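S.,

Sequence below, as promised.
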Amino acid sequence: MPAGILCRAVWLIFKAREMAFSARYPIWLPTAPRPTAAAFTLLFVIESLARASVATVIALQAYDLLQSGQKVSQVYTAVAIGSLLGTLLIPLLIQKTARRFIYSFGGLALILAALALASYTLEGQVAGMFLRVFGAACLNVTTSLYILDHIRKTDYVRVEPMRMTFATFSWTIGPSLGVWLYTTYGVWAPHAFTAVCAIVLLAVFWYLRLSDNTAIRPGKARAANPLRSIRRFVTQPRLRLAWMIAFGRSCFWVTFFVYAPILMVQSGLGKQAGGFLISAGNLMLVAAFFFGKLAQRVGVRKVIALAFLAMAGFTASGGLVGVNHPYITAALLLGGSLAATAVDGVGSIPFLRAVHSHERAEMTGVYRTYLDLSELLPTALYSIVLLYAPLSAVFLLLGAWALVCGFVAWRYLPARL
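The prediction came back faster than expected:
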């Protein structure tokens, strides 16, 4: 064999070896499949069922333990303070470890919460409520980051209403099922169901193999500082407005989930009536898809602002009617649920479109505090008001706050959002 041909063959062999093992050729690196809207919807449906099945049970169980709506408010306030501090630390945890482990810890927290709540003690009630809220925070923050990584901004108006619409099954069946299990089989039954749902959620999540990012990125050298993240968040007007919108709609759902069932009990209709009312209110979530379509035609601002105004009218009217005519009150609160569904369907879009890509983890962690503060501030206020006023007063206060949110949304949201 001529020396030239032999040298040429050796050179080709080494060149092929270099191409196969060089880091400059990412085609050799295996990658996880790109998550779709359907994957996020499936996870959200399972997660919603895990939380919805005890959403009403927790309020009724706290009322059974304490026998006072005012004391129930105090418990919710104390839990919200602890969960707020925990939520602010989630971005720091995300920078310390892989996002999928934070999501998994959220699912595990739901399981531990079920065990604590099943003890039917005041200590177990407080611990279970905290673990449930903190677990939901871990799931919510990481899911939002996955969506920001894998879903295009132009698709938010379609994806968010779809997630809410498909979750209608969970939030419609869950509350009634949970109360039925609670009243028929005892305390352990609804919490065991929640634990099973959380286990299924973790199994599906790991089966989907969601990647932390759409590309391989180097880690950040400096860890997130919660106080610095808060300062950065509040200096951005669009993020402040997005937070207020989310906080406003979450205030409705917290008030509805906690105090509507208690109102049904005080009116004499019973616990099952409270469960049916919550399920009927969540059935309105099916309309989120149609509100998303409406927002594509008339704009997000009009849908959000008008929904808040409708929410204000329905909830304030429900507060005026009160326990004397519980069926009318229930119908009015269902009208408020429909209005809240409109905000649910498109209410997160202002944040998703405003947050900068390089600070998603930090800003999402701060944004997520709207859930904790919506459980802290209203219940703290209600615990004071209920010392001097009947339970229906909380719905009057909620109506007034919804009116403020509607005005601010109409005044400051961009018309072409």
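Residues 33-214+221-412 form a domain with the Growth Hormone; Chain: A; fold (CATH 1.20.1250.20).

Coffee later?
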